[in-house]
Amino acid sequence: MFSPLEPSREADGNEHAVSLLSHRTGAPLAEVRKLFAQEFTRLELRAKVRSYLSVLASSNVLARLRHAGTRTVHPDAPKSLSVETGAAVPEPDAHPVT
Questions:
Q1: Domain contains 45
Q2: Is 75 helix (H, G, I), strand (E, B) or coil?
Q3: Domain that includes residue 21, residue range
């Protein structure tokens, strides 16, 4: 069902994903925002289901930044994003086996 809040929710999730990518890679926010918009638009053209667009666009932007070789991943940055919200997914705690 369509909700009038959905576009705003999607935009908020996209902006959150952009800021996480910027933090994770050290790339300027404006550069990441531009790459994300390009990638999101490219994916959106053929998308049948929009649920994963933000995650796919984030993954592709991260790959592009890594391929450019000018950015490194910040060690404190989250390793993945939630499909539903675009928010950081915490890493599971490692429990040593005794």
A1: yes
A2: coil
A3: 6-68
